[in-house]
Specification:
heterodimer; A: 157 residues; alpha+beta; Ubiquitin-like (UB roll); DNA polymerase, domain 1; 2 domains; 6 helices; 39% helix; 16% strand; B: 695 residues; Aldehyde Oxidoreductase, domain 4; 3 domains; six-stranded mixed sheet; 17 helices; 28 strands
């Protein structure tokens, strides 16, 4: 057991736990943040993506010990932001959501991409999404949603 | 009246984007226990002895002895046990469950279970036929006597994994003597009926509820019944809430996949280079039990002429049992295998005859009034010629095709034509499913849609509401479609076979029309039951008659560049034209079109799964590759309206149509790029290299 402290969705948190536990399990089990999904458990699908110090990470591949003093934002935290509202609207308008299981991860990937590159080309969007698997949409509507968000956001990123 | 095709925001999009939508593993119950499965370590043998570790207080094993009803998973045949009693028939077959409060402890106990076997020789060759079908049209193979030329080829297709992003899972609990199961499923009543039989209880003692579903594609059609029966037996035994979640590896190793197939084709061609007849045989690998394989085979056989009319047919097929993981439903259901084979065959016949494939195919294209492969009739208008022109125009097909014929070009463009029979094959809807739907108007003026249809991403919670709102002329917000719960919804059948909008939606529309007329009543319910259009007659034993009430039609065009050094195929773009009758929501249909085609194209060139001696070599998302955002290039889709009289607003099936033509479109493109014939899928770089170097 180890004492772990970090910032979670803008608030400091502390827990006493096995330092080898996956960040994914801590978020889902200890904090009931079930918007973070487990799709593959090996860092391939991106359904468990969260932001760690503004960078996208797959929470299934991060031991909680590596999170000490870091800043973690999950879809639940991100959904409180203006950027989220722009992306949400774009995802809805472009039909980017089918089963929805990959969607929170796609939102995190979109934010991570736009945070670094406020005006990405189509190719850059595809690269930005390439760590997140979607089996329903064929990706085109997700790509269009990000393009719409860039336009609607008008300098937000 | 507004046009129903005009897109609206999806009912559940906002809650899914926010992460608030609850999928089965997100639902927490107090005192939740965890079930993990002990699995066979050999593909075939007799179970001689099971030695359990000492189980701490509160930990249980659950197996065949605990099944209080019939130890069979109710599907079609009684050939799949809930837990095996004496023999195992495939690697990783479930033998028993270990259940307890701490998942890590349960895992530890599972690893300590010792099973002693007497191994028997496993069968992996396709020799043991469990189902054989044969039918003829016209003069059958007797027409081959009149052939000027006989052309014959063999085609092969591999496994395909559904790869829904949410793995399979259930939770369940006991409430007095009622078992309630919440699961990631397509067919609430399949699960309910299977569990009733497994537990040997009354109908009102089993309740099945659907939460949000993270994709299914057929993978959650029949497989969940096995998990549900096992979990229900455990719940009945230990009387605690239990969670049973597969992780990705377990899911990929043990759940049903698309059947590998071997398809033999012979064509009798007359002196005018017209096809007189086909003789064809389809073999599919069912794995260790039959499951739905017979029905999959029928759909494959019925599709054997593709989008063409062939006057004489001799069609046969076999479902082979092997000691491998059972195969089952996957979007397209036997048709994708056949469309790959028949579309390549038509191309190869034309090339052998020295005729332009497009001209040759157009000469055989099915037309309204033609006889189908089963001597039914294409009654409704077929507008393929117009659709083909459109597809070629938007893709610039002719110019590209001509350019890529150049021997130095390593690009290619391929075009597939296809139809998909909507709803269950044959008399399935009328004789087996007998779908019922209800609409209820409540005192507050809201209308509730009560059906067992599951929204697994395809948007039925949105589109069915649109149908009702439009007919009754109410705002969409006044139409409620909660997740199906078998305690409240009638059995409107499974969410499969591209039937939901056409069949269930058709019934809902009829109910809505009656409700509109009686709308002044304060509170009432309308129920409707499926009635087959009277002109549809089909004999399942002889494969004669109208196999489907309606057909959706489509064209896919795919353009590729095959690297001449690495043989890696890059998909440059795809263009599709579909006749789905009428789109109930244009954007939702276009989303289905993109996603279905992505799966179909990937089936043709990208997705590799195979087994060696019953051991699957791909078992996670790292080695089973599905398309990423980088892989498929832009997609353009055009929808044509061609309303079907019995579908709501003319709607026909959508979901599967968009997948079935993907593989032949991409493999025809690859064929043109490498100037060699593609005889099997997936057309991997290794296969292409072999063709170029040795073909």
């Amino acid at each position: 057991m180890a004492k772990i402290t970090f910032q979670l969705n803008g608030k400091p948190v502390q827990l006493d736990t096995n330092p080898n536990r996956r960040l994914l399990d801590v978020l889902r089990e200890d904090f009931s943040l079930t918007g973070v999904k487990e799709g593959c458990g090996e860092g391939e699908c991106g359904a468990c993506a969260v932001l760690m110090n503004h960078e996208i990470v797959n929470s299934c591949s991060v031991p909680i010990a590596n999170v000490i003093n870091k800043e973690i934002v999950t879809i639940e935290g991100f959904s409180q932001t203006h950027r989220y509202d722009i992306l949400r609207n774009a995802f809805e308008e472009e039909g980017a959501v089918q089963c929805g299981f990959c969607t929170p991860g796609m939102m995190i990937a979109s934010e991570s991409l736009l945070n670094k590159n406020a005006n990405p080309t189509e190719e850059e969007i595809k690269i930005g999404l390439s760590g997140n698997l979607c089996r329903c949409t064929g990706y085109n509507m997700i790509i269009k949603a990000i393009q719409r968000a860039v336009k609607d956001g008008d300098g937000t990123w | 009246m507004s046009d129903i095709s005009k897109s609206v925001r999806k009912t559940d999009a906002a809650e899914k984007i926010s992460g608030k939508a609850l999928y089965v593993d997100d639902i927490k119950l107090d005192h939740m226990h965890h079930a993990l499965t002990v699995r066979s370590s050999i593909p075939a043998g007799l179970i001689k002895n099971i030695v359990l570790p000492e189980l701490p207080d509160g930990y249980y094993s659950v197996g065949a002895d605990d099944v209080s009803g019939k130890n069979v998973v109710k599907i079609i045949f009684d050939d799949q046990p809930i837990f095996p009693t004496d023999k195992v028939t495939y690697l990783h077959e479930p033998i028993l469950l270990i259940v307890g409060p701490d998942k890590a402890k349960v895992k530890e106990l599972v690893d300590q279970v010792k099973i002693e076997y007497e191994e028997t020789k496993p069968v992996f060759d396709w020799v043991n036929s469990a189902i054989h079908y044969h039918f003829e049209k016209g003069d059958g193979n007797r027409v081959f006597r009149h052939a000027k030329k006989i052309i014959s080829y063999d085609y092969e297709t591999g496994y395909q994994e559904q790869a829904y992003i949410e793995p399979q899972g259930f939770i369940g609990y006991l409430d007095d003597d009622k078992v309630t199961l919440i699961g990631s499923i397509q067919c609430p009543y399949y699960v309910k009926n299977a569990v009733i039989q497994a537990l040997g209880v009354e109908e009102n003692q089993v309740r099945v509820i659907q939460p949000s579903i993270g994709g299914a594609f057929g993978g959650k059609e029949e497989f969940p019944s096995l998990m549900a029966c096992q979990l229900a037996v455990a719940i009945q035994k230990i009387k605690q809430p239990i969670s049973m979640m597969y992780d990705r590896e377990e899911d990929m190793l043990v759940t049903t996949k698309r059947h590998p197939s071997k398809i033999h084709f012979e064509a009798a061609v007359d002196k005018t280079n017209q096809i007189l007849g086909f003789q064809t045989h389809v073999g599919i690998d069912a794995g260790a039990n039959i499951g739905l394989s017979g029905v999959v085979l029928s759909r494959s056989l019925i599709a054997c002429t593709g989008a063409y009319t062939i006057p004489h047919l001799d069609v046969s097929g076999d479902v082979y049992l092997t000691n491998t993981v059972p195969n089952g439903a996957f979007r397209g259901f036997g048709a994708p295998q056949m469309y790959f084979a028949v579309e390549m065959f038509m191309e190869h016949i034309a090339k052998d005859l020295g005729i332009d494939p497009l001209t040759f195919r157009k000469r055989h294209l099915a037309k309204q009034g033609d006889k189908t492969s089963t001597n039914g009739t294409f009654r409704d208008p077929i507008i393929m010629e117009e659709m083909i022109e459109k597809a070629m125009e938007i893709s610039d097909y002719q110019t590209k095709y001509k350019e890529y014929q150049d021997p130095s070009s390593h690009k290619g463009i391929g075009m597939s034509w296809f139809f998909h029979g909507c709803g269950f094959t044959g008399s399935g809807e009328a004789n087996h499913i007998k779908a019922k739907v209800k609409l209820r108007k409540t005192k507050d003026g809201f209308v509730h849609i009560l059906v067992a249809a599951v929204d697994m991403g395809q948007g039925i919670r949105t589109t069915l509401r649109k149908v009702v709102a439009e007919i009754i002329e109410l705002p969409l917000e006044r139409i409620i479609f909660d997740f199906p719960d078998t305690d409240f919804v009638p059995d409107s059948g499974p969410t499969v076979a591209s039937r939901t909008m056409m069949i269930v939606g058709g019934l809902v529309a009829r109910a809505a029309k009656e409700m509109k007329e009686r709308f002044q009543e304060i509170e009432f319910t309308v129920q409707k039951q499926y009635e087959q259009p009277s002109y549809i007659k089909y004999d399942e034993a002889t494969f004669q008659g109208d196999a489907y009430p309606a057909y959706s039609w489509g064209i896919n065009i795919v353009e590729v560049d095959v690297d001449p050094v690495t043989y890696i195929t890059k998909v440059l773009g795809s263009w599709s034209v579909y006749d789905v009758g009428k789109a109930i929501d244009e954007r939702i249909v276009l989303g289905q079109a993109d996603g279905g085609l992505a799966q179909g194209i990937a089936y043709g060139y990208l997705e590799v799964m195979r087994h060696e001696n019953g051991v699957l070599k791909q078992k996670n998302m790292t080695d089973y590759i599905i398309p990423t955002a980088m892989d498929l290039g832009p997609m353009e889709t055009v929808l044509y309206e061609n309303p079907y009289a019995f579908g709501p607003y003319g709607a026909k099936g959508v979901g599967e149509l968009t997948l079935v033509g993907g593989a032949p479109a991409v493999t025809k493109a690859i064929e043109q790029a490498i100037k060699k014939r593609i005889m099997k899928i997936p057309a991997t770089p290794e296969y292409l290299m072999e063709l170029v170097n040795h073909g």
